[in-house]
């Protein structure tokens, strides 16, 4: 693991710790924002959804965690984990890699789900069980580094190559 990857991994861990509202001050919450990178994050301000969004934005997809109910609705085993691709953004690394989005809408547990898209089950030879897993891997990947995405497509395992661009920059206000 390169030094830059280690630093990025540490930043992701710091973000996770700040999301939980933890501090190094004997378990007391911080009154001031916790510095975790280019922007300050107050304890509890950035939640798990924000971290996941930041990671998948880098790939250029919208996705859902594969639940047992969704897995069965798309003819996969109930214990199958992964990220069901809902949308692929135009001109994104996901589109360039050939990732496929869902096209047919169904309702599962009162929620609209687009089926027929790829299910991401691996990234860079690491298992992907959830959006959080995928985002964590994406956030520690070097810019312009080529990696593999392992997907289930029509019930078959397919390996795609993806090249991620730069990490999104935080604009100063």
Counting DSSP E segments of at least 2 residues, the number of strands comes to 10
Percent helix: 25-40%
Radius of gyration (CA) equals 17 Å
Please describe the biggest sheet, giving its number of strands, its sense, and whether it closes into a barrel.
6 strands, antiparallel
Classify the secondary structure makeup into a structural class.
alpha+beta
Mean pLDDT: 77
C-alpha geometry: globular
State the fourth-level CATH superfamily of the largest domain.
PDZ domain
Number of domains: 2
Q: N-to-C terminal Cα separation, in Å?
A: 34 Å
Task: Predict the CATH topology of the largest domain.
Answer: Pdz3 Domain
Low-confidence stretches: 13-45
Percentage of residues in DSSP E strands:
25-35%
Order of helices and strands: HEEHEHEHEEEEHEE
At CATH level 2, the architecture of the largest domain is Roll
């Amino acid at each position: 693991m390169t030094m830059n990857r280690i630093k990025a991994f540490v930043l992701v861990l710091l973000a996770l710790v700040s999301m939980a509202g933890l501090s190094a001050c004997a378990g007391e919450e911080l009154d001031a924002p916790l510095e975790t990178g280019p922007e300050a994050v107050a304890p509890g301000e950035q939640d798990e959804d924000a971290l996941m969004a930041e990671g998948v934005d880098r790939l250029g997809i919208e996705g859902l965690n594969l639940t047992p109910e969704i897995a069965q609705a798309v003819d996969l085993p109930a214990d199958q984990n992964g990220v069901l691709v809902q949308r692929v953004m135009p001109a994104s690394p996901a589109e360039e890699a050939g990732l496929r989005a869902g096209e047919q809408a169904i309702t599962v547990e009162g929620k609209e789900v687009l089926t027929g898209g790829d299910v991401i089950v691996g990234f860079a030879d690491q298992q992907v069980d959830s959006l959080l897993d995928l985002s964590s891997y994406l956030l520690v990947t070097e810019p312009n580094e080529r990696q593999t995405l392992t997907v289930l497509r029509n019930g078959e395992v397919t390996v795609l190559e993806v090249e991620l661009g730069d990490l999104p920059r935080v604009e100063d206000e």
